[in-house]
Amino acid sequence: MLLTLHIRDFAIIETLELEFSPGMSALTGETGAGKSILLGALGLLLGDRADAASIRHGCERAEIGAAFDLTACAAARAWLAARDLDSGGECHLRRVISREGRSRAYINGTPTPVASLRELGEHLVDIHGQYEYQSLLRHDLQRRLLDRHGNHQPLLDTLKSLQRQWNEAGEAMRALIGHDQDRDTRLEFLRFQLQELEALAPEADESETLHSELARLSNAGRLIDTCRTHLQRLYEDDASAHDLLGKAVQELTELGEFDAAFREDGELFNGALIQLQEGIERLRDCEAQLELDPARLQWVEQRLDALHACARKHRIEVRQLAPFHARLLQDIEALEQADEKLAALERQRADLEARYLESARKLHAQRRKTAARIAAKVSESMQTLGMPGGRFEIRVSANERAGLSEHGNDSVEFLVSANPGQPLLPLGKVASGGELSRISLAIQVVAARATEIPTLIFDEVDSGVGGAVAETVSRQLQTLGRGQQILCVTHLAQVAAQAHNHLQVSKSRGDGNTQTRVRRLDTTQRVEEIARMLGGRKITESTRRHAQEMLLMAPADGTDDATATH
Prior knowledge:
By secondary structure, the chain is α+β, with helices and mostly antiparallel strands. The chain has a domain at 184-336. The chain contains 19 helices and 16 strands. A hairpin with a 2-residue loop joins strand 1 and strand 2. Helix 7 packs antiparallel against helix 13 (321-336), helix 8 (206-218) packs antiparallel against helix 12 (294-314) and helix 15 packs parallel to helix 16 (467-481). The chain is elongated, with a radius of gyration of 43 Å. Mean pLDDT is 83; it is low at 558-566.
């Protein structure tokens, strides 16, 4: 349920704070007062597209926030919990729009994509507009309304999953069939490539290893000479560095008995002598491992030439030869087993199609039951909306040859007969716009009774009706308000009089600017507002008495008012 709505610097609203209560709330006011601005602000919180032009003139950004009570909205709580956004029994939404056109969205203080607002909003608020009948002419929306009313989503999810798997299996089959057209030629070519690579037998990182060995073999003579020269100078000569350093250590150690400084110097040189001995041992090891091997050198050079020639032929780098070899093996195996894989895919696709058709039949049966239930309720409502004898029907036709769709294989069409004796015709062929709007209203009210969404907004859905029909509409909306929160933007006095709460939207001018304001109406103020709606600008005592009678006749359950501050 919507608890509060905060608007700052949006359109012609400087700042506005609204508080809402359960039941049915009427929003009334002169045409152009700003009722649509409130719904526009709420729409932005529910994920509508933002426009920098909606920021109040002279301001850098607009900000809109709202709080919702989720006590009776398990779907919204589950959605938040699945995304670690749950913060208890309330949910706070916030949207900030900057003059540069950037938009930021927040759910319970956490920055989120605008698409997340849209997803969550579908669980919180359902808006029915005065031109809803225009969208109801579309068959896809007729099907969606039927499925939502009947809670068919689990079966639809199953169909969507089966259709996706069926399509994926088909793509795999087409890929295999495409290969099969020239499979023998391609297989022969791949085997030829494999034969060459099998003979070469490239190994992973072989090129790097061979290049290192080539460098060592090519310079073996120089490396050996260098080791021999330094071993002589450092160790083997009569005045080698090893002998000189050893004598220095011995003499400095002896002098250390007389002067501690010489003892420390002796220790430093002794460390140098140890490191020198380690270096000499390493040189000896290197010399022992080095040898002049022209035959090995020639083999390494020839091996590298072969690897580079093969890589150039396949237009790859030498280090890619081993992975290329492995990929060839995989491609050949896949081609050799294509027939077996194709047969397996055909069996899989046939099984998926059978499961799809079985689920589609179940959905068809459920849709027919839901369609009969909705049709009976809408037909009943039409009798009280100025169309006695009118009938409404939802035709659900199955076509299993139409292919696999994520929505099933049904076509759904709304049919109506507005007057006795007239045949049922598609909704779009109803001649009278007034009849079409009343039928749309009946459908919306019936659909709203079945929804689990806690807050329903009706934006001038009563447009084009009056008299006894308007009285019926108002009572239907108030009945809805006993179980859900209803916000009704209306110009009908009959509807406003039935509301549990009444908010008046007005426009004020001053100091060179225009602002929209909203105020809560008490009983006296409601009489004046309803009298204005009945009689226009000139309000007579007779009009006021009529307004008082309408308020007295309205049921008095759940009359806590909404409050507004600005």
